[in-house]
Amino acid sequence: MRLCLAALLTLAPAVSLAAPADQLISLLEQKRCEDAFLLIQQVKPPPAATAESASQGRRIARASLPCRQRDTALGVAFTELAAKLAPEDPEVLTAHAEALVSLQQRAEAARLLDKVLESHPDDAPKARFARGKLAFDERDYETASKVLKPLKTDEEYGDEAQVMIVKSEAAMAQREQDEGEPKMLAPETAVKKADEAMKVTKKQPSGKVVAQLKGKVTSGGSKTFTAKGLKKGQPYLFTASGECTRKGATGKRSKKTRGLHEDPLRDISGIDFAVQFGSQQPRTLSMGQHKPDSSRIEFLADAEAMAIKVFDRSSTDKDVKCTAEDFVVLTP
Fold first, then answer.
1. Ramachandran region of residue 310, left (φ > 0), alpha (ψ -120 to 50) or beta?
2. What is the DSSP annotation of 90-139?
3. Averaged pLDDT, 8-22
């Protein structure tokens, strides 16, 4: 008995004296975001980055993704720390830029992404895509087109990049036409005209319905639809709704629930529904947890009739049921 107690006392300090960075990473991997946040001030980045600090920065950037998705302000605190530990790492700086965009700190995000592309012009596709999308959203179509063109053949980002390139070039052409008109437009009229030309909105879809794809895809399922009446080379908008629920979830937490693992409304991990347009790379569908969520995905038609495959590749618990439905193709 004394020997066992002595052994436990010997092991205890080793656990409690673990490096703060390692403790923080462990908590992030357990998705204990608030507990991990309390350790940020205890992590002291070295004056100059080392191989160890760079590794810690990458691990923090990766493990903090669920926290960033849950709380944007909290997420920025983690990516900021990661950037201090690995100030030259493209993966870390891109993650920090994405977190900054979520807080509308777009100028600082653009600065970071430009830094990544300057030092890694050929091997940072994620940063290039993020910078191009940022420029596109800011209506800086010249920058968007220039930054995104090297991604045309990229397996992961090529399809989405091509949509923005086509729309950027259309917007630039429209702008040149407008500048050639003798009468100057008021700023508010010019913005409205550009919006009408692009037909882009972040609210409910307002484009013309091209195809309504009847049917639904549930957990473990797959279904291929055919969208007809498309014009090859033109952009389209695919919309869908999806929801995942756990057996026993009623919409509110029961007072009788004692532990995290007994709560039917606890977070569902492993959700991974996707849509594939023709032979293009699959794109992730948004699936709400215990309430519906919607997806709006733009794609370029590569044929007048395209196969659109919706499928589930999730690894959720057996008591989780997911349904994706309401599939529609519209003009953007």
1. beta
2. HHHHHHHHHHHHHTT-HHHHHHHHHHHHHH-SSS-HHHHHHHHHHHHHTT
3. 54
Q: Which of these, 225, 223, 226, lies nearest to 312 by C-alpha position?
A: 223
Residues listed for the chain: 332
pLDDT at 166 over 80: yes
**Per residue in 135-144, is it b (16+ CB within 10 Å) or e — as a string?**
bbeebbbebb
**The model scores a pTM over 0.85:** no
Question: Which residue matches tokens 């026993």?
Answer: 248
CA distance 186 to 191: 9
Phi (first) and psi of residue 277, to 5 degrees: -100, 110
Number of neighbours of residue 331 by Cβ within 10 angstroms: 16
- Give tens-digit pLDDT for 168-214: 999 998 888 877 655 444 555 544 554 554 444 334 445 789 999 99
Give me the pLDDT at residue 142, please.
94
Mode of pairing for the β-strands spanning 235-246 and 222-227? unpaired
